[in-house]
């Protein structure tokens, strides 16, 4: 792929797909890591006199206008971080946005409203996506792909518009790609992956493909209950993907054949209900009773996981070990975050919530080798998959 240095941008309109999908709570940005990560590319383009038009999404509005998922607060925060004005366009297409782009000076920056408010962005119908892509491409002379968190998606603002304009990878996509290329080509071993979080079915799909690449897989978070169920244990009211149990059994058998160690929790912190001050208890992982739900890994699991990570030379961590947003269930996530911050091995944190968690614990990003802005994208990269948003970028 080409870099933005290969584009002649002075006085040109440059359309940038950024990843500004930050966690929000009560209308406030609770972690601005992804906005910060977009700064190097936007600054470089604006400094070189580009007229910068930024596209991004927030959450999953599913093709409808959802006021709570407006990017307007993100425009404000972006402007503070860039220390220059950022205009905001409530329109994505049509004369209003055309006018807003025309009004940009060299070095000016315009952020468009949540691109997923338009149903064509994520449409499975290629023609629909191409129509939106054509509208977006008409706003610019060149395209820069800098939303690493979405490069695994076939979406109008990611793959379709890239094919309509001269294109290049932004600084973030370049640096993330460098790290993940290293992980798939030549990782130091033992190589361990820690998986958790709530996007269980997404991540279960990934595990099978990771078996040929890694030496050890540690499973915590909401995912682990489908594994415990596959091992024949009751999981009470915990998060469970019942239709995936068979797949997980297959994964466990496959792992055994390949000599990949799958490490499951041995104890679980359970709660009566999904709430911060619920009645809680710590139980053995094979003895979760009905009426209780698993909220975090237990203390013996923390010890076990720390031991399994201690001699690893490469560790990738994606997905919190528990419901870390509630202090009562944050201990497992915090312990893993701290264990990895202290190692000299190559440590990569992926996943929006995992990265937000380490910052919430006050652990600096630079205590890890790399904190990725991509969750799904980083996992698919690690599987060795060709990512559509990277495949469409022109070679040098
Ligand atoms: P990431 O963004 O890092 O890829 P996910 O989006 O998959 O992670 O999952 C993050 C969410 O998973 C967090 O909001 C956390 O509360 C939730 N989670 C973790 N463990 C559990 C659990 N045992 N039960 C329910 N939700 C969980
Ligand atoms: Mg997430």
What does the model show?
With 396 residues, the protein is of the alpha/beta class. It is built from 15 helices and 17 strands. Strands 5-6-4-1-7-8 form a six-stranded parallel sheet, with helices on both faces. Strand 9, helix 8 and strand 10 (216-219) form a beta-alpha-beta unit. The relative contact order is 0.13. The model has no long low-confidence stretch (mean pLDDT 96).
**Rg, nearest Å:** 22 Å
| Unreliable residue runs | none
The total of helices stands at: 15
User: What share of the residues lie within helices?
Assistant: 25-40%
Mean pLDDT score, rounded? 96
Number of strands: 17
Q: Compounds present?
A: adenosine-5'-diphosphate, magnesium ion
As a percent range, the share of strand residues is 15-25%
> How far apart, in Å, are the first and last alpha carbons?
6 Å
């Amino acid at each position: 792929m080409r870099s933005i240095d290969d584009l002649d941008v002075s006085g040109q309109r440059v359309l940038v797909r950024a990843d500004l999908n930050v966690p929000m709570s009560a209308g406030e940005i609770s972690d601005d890591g992804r906005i910060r990560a977009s700064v190097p590319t936007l600054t470089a383009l604006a400094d070189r006199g580009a007229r910068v038009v930024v596209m991004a999404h927030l959450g999953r509005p599913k093709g409808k206008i959802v006021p709570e998922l407006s990017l307007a607060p993100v425009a404000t925060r972006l402007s503070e971080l860039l220390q220059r004005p950022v205009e905001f366009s409530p329109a994505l297409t049509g004369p209003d946005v055309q006018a807003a782009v025309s009004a940009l000076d060299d070095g000016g920056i315009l952020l468009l409203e949540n691109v997923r408010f338009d149903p064509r962005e994520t449409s499975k119908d290629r023609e629909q996506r191409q129509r939106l892509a054509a509208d977006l491409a008409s706003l610019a002379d060149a395209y820069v792909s800098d939303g690493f968190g979405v490069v695994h998606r076939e979406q109008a603002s990611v793959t379709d518009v890239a094919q309509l304009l001269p294109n290049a990878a932004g600084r973030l996509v370049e640096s993330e790609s460098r790290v993940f290329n290293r992980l798939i080509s030549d990782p130091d071993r033992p190589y361990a992956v820690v998986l958790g979080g709530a996007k269980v079915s997404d991540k279960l799909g990934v595990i099978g493909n990771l078996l040929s690449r890694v030496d050890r897989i540690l499973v915590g978070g909401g995912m682990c209950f489908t594994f415990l169920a596959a091992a024949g244990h009751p999981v009470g009211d915990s998060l469970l993907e019942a239709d995936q149990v068979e797949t997980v059994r297959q994964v466990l058998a496959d792992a055994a054949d390949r000599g990949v160690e799958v490490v499951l929790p041995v104890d679980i912190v359970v709660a009566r209900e999904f709430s911060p001050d619920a009645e809680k208890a710590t139980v053995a992982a094979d003895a979760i009773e009905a009426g209780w739900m698993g909220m975090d890994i237990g203390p013996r699991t923390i010890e076990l996981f720390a031991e399994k990570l201690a001699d690893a030379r490469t560790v990738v961590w994606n997905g919190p070990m528990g419901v870390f947003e509630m202090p009562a269930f944050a201990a497992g996530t915090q312990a893993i975050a701290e264990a990895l911050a202290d190692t000299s091995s190559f440590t990569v944190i992926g996943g929006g919530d995992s990265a937000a968690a380490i910052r919430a614990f006050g652990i600096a990003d630079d205590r890890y080798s790399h904190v990725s802005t991509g969750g799904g994208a980083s996992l698919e990269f690690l599987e060795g998959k060709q990512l559509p948003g990277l495949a469409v970028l022109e070679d040098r």
